[in-house]
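Course assignment 3, question 2. Fill in each field.
Student: A.L.
Task: Predict the tertiary structure for the chain below.
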Amino acid sequence: MIATLGQDSSIFKLKGRDVPEYIHRISTNRIRETGFMRTRLTIFTNEKGRIIDLCRYINLGEYQLLVGTISNREKFRRWIERFIVGDDVFVEDITEKYATIKLIGNCVERYIFARYAVDISESAPDEAIEFIYNNKKFLIIKGEKTGKYSEIIIVGSKEDILFLSTVLKLDGDENFPQIITGEEYNGLMIEMGKPGKNEIKDSFNPHEINLLNAVDFKKGCYIGQEVIARLDTYNKVQKSLIRIESDMETICDDALMILHNNIEIGKVTTLIKSPIDGKTKGLGVIRKEFNIDGATYETKGSDIEERSKITIKGEWREKT
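Answer field:
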């Protein structure tokens, strides 16, 4: 099991009687049906169905939280405030006040019980649970599974999360959990094919980067709904997310075009040195007909003439 102190999330606090209905109206999922101490992923899209942000909505009764992507923070705030016309909705950016700890592995529930005496084994996947540790209040959220691994997110004030991060180790077990940096955690997510900050943006729609688990196709209208529904109904989705391995020795900050016979067929969106094996790996978005496991294509940067190669990797499998 691994743990990381998360600095990659934006957190917004929303108050007002119209918040559930308002967020339901402008995002992709059934927010008004999210009960007290429940959470739900939802996506905010623009008129073209492109992603403004992917957020976790948390209903805490007196107020609600939206936990999103830090790189989309300012754009997202402008977006959700843009459509408040006569609605009883007040938005506060509390990103600087709060932080998260993320735990991922196949024994996170047992760890939470052993370390904090909080039993979440019977909790629903969308449940939020409050707990007190050392007179400090935290919120535990069960995330969606990544492959076969469970993910737990702990939310608290920045000061309290910093304290909690110093007491993560179980007594007598200095190696459990393994604490990694945010960069290493993001690298692991890339290994698993999970989209991150370079994919969750308005260059793509939810179909293209595998985020349909946050879209309810039976829900009523929302901004961008017509485009997203039409892509699904008429099978018009032209691109898909891919995991890649590259022969590049250095990481290029410029976006890389993916070429087939000198014709652009996609883009490399993220490229890193893997924290697992040191190889250059990443994610990209490619035309669906070229998404073939094991296929190799050339890449080229906008300001770089030198060509490199990428290979499409299939579904992530645990290394044995």
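Instructor remarks: The CA atoms of residues 116 and 130 lie 12 Å apart. The mean pLDDT is 91.
Grade: pending
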